[in-house]
Every structure is written in structure tokens, then in C-alpha cells.
Amino acid sequence: MEHSPASVPAALPYYVAFSQLLGLTVVAVTGAWLGLYRGGIAWESSLQFNVHPLCMVIGMIFLQGDALLVYRVFRREAKRTTKILHGLLHVFAFIIALVGLVAVFDYHKKKGYADLYSLHSWCGILVFVLYFVQWLVGFSFFLFPGASFSLRSRYRPQHIFFGATIFLFSVGTALLGLKEALLFKLGSKYSTFEPEGVLANVLGLLLVCFGVVVLYILAQADWKRPSQAEEQALSMDFKTLTEGDSPSPQ
Amino acid sequence: MEHSPASVPAALPYYVAFSQLLGLTVVAVTGAWLGLYRGGIAWESSLQFNVHPLCMVIGMIFLQGDALLVYRVFRREAKRTTKILHGLLHVFAFIIALVGLVAVFDYHKKKGYADLYSLHSWCGILVFVLYFVQWLVGFSFFLFPGASFSLRSRYRPQHIFFGATIFLFSVGTALLGLKEALLFKLGSKYSTFEPEGVLANVLGLLLVCFGVVVLYILAQADWKRPSQAEEQALSMDFKTLTEGDSPSPQ
């Protein structure tokens, strides 16, 4: 289905609203889990650990997911404004996640626990570094004024693919962390359907649902942000330049 | 980049070869882990549990991933042959995964363990049911002769999206299972970098890499199977019918 640049695909707002409802539910259920079964959150006590899951879920799941949706939601604003919002949301996500990482490393240090031995931690460090690299490369291609139009066009599909992949990898890493937190505390009680275990399983499924809905919105070809008049003109200029042809309507 | 129907994109064979190398490595490392640290595999003993991870990795990861790649690899064969191969690979994957599921339920029953309490098991049952439903719906739309061309065209993007999503969800579920198996057995020894823990973490990263490479191959728009002469003709007939226009070269 084709849409004029001014129109918004009919179903898109409902899917975006649903994604936000799911994302906020994920954050709320994470808070409820930590509040009800883990004693809440504080920096200067053994509750410092709990800063980690909350910050990672807000930063690496909810805000990262929302940053990916910016180009589907802001369809008529100037491209540069939308880009800056996309970049800024990722900066907020990154800073919040960094606080979450500092919390867990500091907690481990105070308790004398080993760092970076588990699959969750290996995946976590890897995805966090990839997220940072993706941001830096994205910034230098799309916001820093140096990169040419053709370079941007060639890098764009890679940026989109790796952006979605890093987001999904973040969701997977969160599931691993949740599972680790449950097994460490509940142990064999996990199998007796303890309320904490059931709530955390539900949280895991909600995380998966948020990931799938964000991916679904990104994957719909006709929900993509339409290119605007100034971009079309730029694209035509570029085409003209590279093809050595005079600009004429085809 | 455009390709004529006869040509194969230059980089595609290397990516496919790499995916196969990764997939086989994942199966081999799973086998090595079970052989070296879990006493190997048998049906009639407590080794029955080990049938579960091996079958799930072969079925729900390796074969499912390869079934998704069929349309990128077989580019010149008749569409129907390729479809049948795609459907058959999924049948093999399903049967092998079913053996893996029977193994773990039977093992639990013999040992008196509870079923379906963990996040891994919830995700596993969900993804297995979704896989079965996706196969049934795919079969009735694309192989069963009833569905019209327009119905197939409308369902195709959904089938592709949910196929890729179910595959990625399977990878995530495998990671959860791996983590569960490690924490149940190693407990606090996991943090002392036990060789089994390190090998299993490497296996986890290999699973992620296989998932990413398969997704990357699927996501490249110009690596898609070109539509063949007979499909183009059918598509034109359909276009003609729906637009009420006479078939003429444009």
C-alpha cells in the first residue's frame, strides 16, 4: 500500500500505542518485582544490585526500543530534528545503562564476587560495547557533517540491521539476567511455582512481546517514514551528479 | 544492486558457507559439552536429559535456520521444489525437536521433577506451539492448492516476519536453557571459571552468532530469490485481472 507523505498508515498509531503500553508495563513489572521480592532499591546497601536490572530495562530495553521507533512516529518533522531525537534517546539509554553497569560492578566489588564469568555478563558486555560502537559510527555517518550522501546511503541498511539486532540481543541478555537472578535466589524453590518465579516468568514473556512488537513495527515496509521534499531533491541532485545527466522528470 | 535472475550475488555464497560452518560448530560444541561434562547421551538412564539440548539445537536452531535460508540458496530451481524443501526441512526440525521434548518430559516424570515452571520452559512451549502453527498456516497458504494468489501475496510478509521471529525466539530459548543447565549443576562454582562454564558460555555466543548471520542473510533485500518467468507471468495475469487492464508491456 502506498501512502502520500502527509498520511499516517492507519494501523501504525495502534501498534505504537501498544508498544508503549508493553514497554511501560515491562518497566513497572520490573519495579514491582524488585519492590515486592527484592527489598527495593538503594545505592548504599546490598540493595545496590537492584539498581542494575531496573536501569538496564529502562535504558537498554525501553528507551533503546523507543529510539528505534522515532522514525516511524515522527513522520513530518525535519529529518535532522528526528535524527537528533533518535541520537539523544540512545544517549539517555546509554547513560542509564551505564549507571546500571556501575551499580553491579560496584556491588560485586563490595561483596567480593567475581565479575564477568556468566553467559549473561559476557552477552551484556558485548551488547553494551556494540551499542556504543553503533552509536559512534551512526553519529559520525549521519550527524557529523563529513559523510557524503552516497556513503550514508550505503551505510544506512547496515545501521538499521545492526540497530535492530543489538536491540534484540539486549532483550535476550535481559532474559538471561532475569533467569540468573531467579535461580541464584530461588534455587529448587523455583520449581514449586513460587509467586516471585511466576511474576519473573511473566516479566520475561513481556520483554519478549515488547521486542517482537518493536521489530514488527520496524519490519513493515509501508510504515517507513516517507522521504520528504528536501531529501528527494537532494537525492535527485546526487543522482544527477553521479549519472552526469541533466535533472529532468522521468 | 540489481541482479539478473541467473546471477548469484557475489558475497552470498560466503555468508551461507559461514552460516553453515557456524551452525555445524554449534551442533558439535553442544555434543562436546554433553560428552565431556555431562556423561554423553542415552535414552534409558539419567543421561536421557541430554537428548533434550542436542535435539533442540539440531532441530530448532540448525535445521530451522537452514530452512529459512532455502530461498536464498536455491535460486534457480522451480518455486514449488524450493517450497517443498523449505516445508520438509521444517518437518525434520519439528520431529527432532519433538524427540527432544519427549526426552525432557519423560526424564522429569521418571525423576519426579515438576514440569513447565521455568522461564525457559514457558518460552520453549510457546515457541514450539508457534512453530507448529506457523508451519500449518504456511502449508495451507502456500502448498495446499486452495489459497488464491492475492491471499498468498498478502500473507507472505507476515509468514516471513513470524518465521524469522520464531527462529530468533528459539535461539533466545536455547540460551535460557543453557544457562539453566549451568546454574543447576555448577551453582557457585560457575563464578570460578570452571572449564564447563567457559565452554557453555562460548556455545551461547556461537548460538547468538548463528542467529545473527542467518538474520543478516535474510535481511539483505538484494539477496532475495529473484522471481522466475512463470511467477512473473502469473503476477502479471493477476495484475491484469485486478486492474481490469489488457496485458501490455509497460
UniProtKB/TrEMBL annotation, chains A, B:
<feature type="domain" description="Cytochrome b561">
    <location>
        <begin position="18"/>
        <end position="219"/>
    </location>
</feature>
<keyword id="KW-0249">Electron transport</keyword>
<keyword id="KW-0813">Transport</keyword>
<feature type="transmembrane region" description="Helical">
    <location>
        <begin position="159"/>
        <end position="178"/>
    </location>
</feature>
<keyword id="KW-0812">Transmembrane</keyword>
<comment type="function">
    <text>Transmembrane reductase that uses ascorbate as an electron donor in the cytoplasm and transfers electrons across membranes to reduce monodehydro-L-ascorbate radical in the lumen of secretory vesicles. It is therefore involved the regeneration and homeostasis within secretory vesicles of ascorbate which in turn provides reducing equivalents needed to support the activity of intravesicular enzymes.</text>
</comment>
<feature type="transmembrane region" description="Helical">
    <location>
        <begin position="56"/>
        <end position="74"/>
    </location>
</feature>
<feature type="transmembrane region" description="Helical">
    <location>
        <begin position="86"/>
        <end position="105"/>
    </location>
</feature>
<keyword id="KW-1278">Translocase</keyword>
<dbReference type="InterPro" id="IPR006593">
    <property type="entry name" value="Cyt_b561/ferric_Rdtase_TM"/>
</dbReference>
<feature type="transmembrane region" description="Helical">
    <location>
        <begin position="125"/>
        <end position="147"/>
    </location>
</feature>
<keyword id="KW-0968">Cytoplasmic vesicle</keyword>
<keyword id="KW-1133">Transmembrane helix</keyword>
<keyword id="KW-0472">Membrane</keyword>
<keyword id="KW-0479">Metal-binding</keyword>
<keyword id="KW-0408">Iron</keyword>
<dbReference type="GO" id="GO:0042584">
    <property type="term" value="C:chromaffin granule membrane"/>
</dbReference>
<dbReference type="GO" id="GO:0046872">
    <property type="term" value="F:metal ion binding"/>
</dbReference>
<dbReference type="InterPro" id="IPR043205">
    <property type="entry name" value="CYB561/CYBRD1-like"/>
</dbReference>
<protein>
    <recommendedName>
        <fullName>Transmembrane ascorbate-dependent reductase CYB561</fullName>
    </recommendedName>
</protein>
<dbReference type="Pfam" id="PF03188">
    <property type="entry name" value="Cytochrom_B561"/>
</dbReference>
<keyword id="KW-0349">Heme</keyword>
<dbReference type="GO" id="GO:0016491">
    <property type="term" value="F:oxidoreductase activity"/>
</dbReference>
<dbReference type="GO" id="GO:0005765">
    <property type="term" value="C:lysosomal membrane"/>
</dbReference>
<feature type="transmembrane region" description="Helical">
    <location>
        <begin position="198"/>
        <end position="219"/>
    </location>
</feature>
<feature type="transmembrane region" description="Helical">
    <location>
        <begin position="12"/>
        <end position="36"/>
    </location>
</feature>
